[in-house]
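Need a sequence for this fold. Nothing fancy.
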């Protein structure tokens, strides 16, 4: 398990290095790593990690589509966060080959915060073949 403290109401944090460290520390050479976020207002996704404007564009587009304030009925006032987290998803699975994450050249793994700042848990499951 990885614990991450987010610092903004909505943000995407590149956690690729943390997942990579766990794969290496566990000695996984070939298999799969599943990254799971056990929260209903946070998600996880894989996307470009070379240009920070991509993260900005994703967050701003989600905010336009599902604004923080709106005609929502949920009493906690964070319906937008539940919707955004559902769209991003709660998990991703990445192949591991030769002890390395088999991500594309520009890909990174992101924790997506939509109701922060908070302390979030990220669960990792490693399966060897």
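Here you go.
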């Amino acid at each position: 398990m990885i614990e991450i403290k987010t610092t903004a109401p909505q943000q995407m944090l590149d956690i690729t290095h943390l997942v990579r460290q766990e794969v290496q520390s566990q000695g996984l050479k070939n298999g799969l790593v599943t990254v799971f976020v056990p929260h209903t207002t946070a998600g996880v996704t894989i996307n470009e990690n070379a240009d920070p404007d991509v993260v900005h564009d994703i967050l701003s587009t989600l905010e336009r589509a599902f604004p923080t304030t709106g005609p929502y009925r949920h009493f906690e006032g964070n319906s937008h966060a539940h919707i955004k987290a559902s769209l991003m998803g709660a998990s991703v699975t990445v192949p591991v080959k030769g002890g390395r994450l088999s991500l594309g050249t520009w890909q990174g793994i992101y924790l997506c915060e939509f109701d922060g700042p908070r302390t979030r848990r990220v669960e990792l499951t490693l399966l060897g073949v």
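For context: DSSP finds three helices and eight strands in the chain.
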